[in-house]
Amino acid sequence: MQKQVYADNAATTPVCDVALKEMLPFFTECYANPSAIYPPGYEVKSVTEQARKSIAVCLGARSNEIFFTSGGTESDNWVLRFALKRISKDKRHIITTMAEHSAVYKTALELQTQGYEVEFLPVDEHGAPAPEALEKAVRSDTALVSLMAANNEVGTLSDIKRLCEISHAKKAMFHTDAVQAVGHVPINVRELGADYLSLSAHKFGGPKGIGALYIRYGRVLPPMLCGGGQERGGRSGTTNTPGVVGMAAALKNATQNMQEETTRITALRDALIQGVLKISGARLTGHPTQRLPGLASFVFEGFGRPPLVRILGEEGVFASAGSACSAGSGDPSRVLLAMGVPNKLAHSSLRFSLGAQNTLEDVDYILEVLPRALERARKEEDFLKNVF
Ligand code: PLP
Description:
The protein has 14 helices and 12 strands. It is an alpha/beta fold. It is globular. Residues 71-73, 76, 101, 103, 148, 152, 177, 179-180, 200, 211 line the site of pyridoxal-5'-phosphate.
């Protein structure tokens, strides 16, 4: 049977063993609604609150600053859509970048249609906003600055602490989408000083469909979902207890193993980068060192239309183009374009994201398969050129 290597952990990760084990009883044994006022309900409620505490400890937060959501998309939407509702009508300026995940970017575009002035700060060639650019852009009427901690397409880490300080100096609130960062690089909300921080369990060995929003104590965020008043009225909907338990276990596991795993995965990533860069026309995208431990992203000169991701997949290597549209036929990644990557080159993007299950053998296999996949892509490209 053909070997298969999953190298798309930035898209999603397998649920880690500890998380799965801890979740299982909450599907079939301890299934009571945590809002119920009888003993099984109290028991589940207590476990839910322990999970909240555990997540808070991993992030350097207080329990009452953690609100469960369905994931990163909901957390991002909640902040962007609702953080502005309770502040002065004169503050209608919002700052973000073109390199954000669509959960922030598209919501920001929608806010533009509602009369907010949204400023897209430029990013540097590695995909990070420069603190100096933010210093110039932030104004006394800036309500919210939303800048991601780690870029999901190229893995570049931003200096969130500095960006947050600059925003606060002008009394603007600061949100960071830390969906790719949490569980992979140290995140301490107290040290960062952020007002809001989004996270999602399935990016660090937890289940899909559960995430959280950190809301700094004292910040008021009106609810996006109304109903039964769960999450202290902040987010209605029956608590996803198995998900919450799995998220807490996965985050604890990731936090405890972070140092060791960072060393191991960074070595794999660097071996992959060195190997890929030996291929003629290959270029690394994102910051050479200030990047997520497992993420290696590239563009390949001379390649374009036939999606490398598909061809690699047929060879048993599962990677990504970094963004949904560049995986298919459509436009190249707006993140790469914002970084100044030429349009044609941006079509050839490839993102490998290594995780807990990957080994050096996997990296060797990717390096064995990639030149073959590129050769196939070149042949397909020549064929397409001759036909059309
Ligand atoms: N933000 C970033 C940076 C992401 O990478 C993702 C998912 O890819 C999201 C938000 C959305 O998270 P979720 O899949 O939990 O909705």
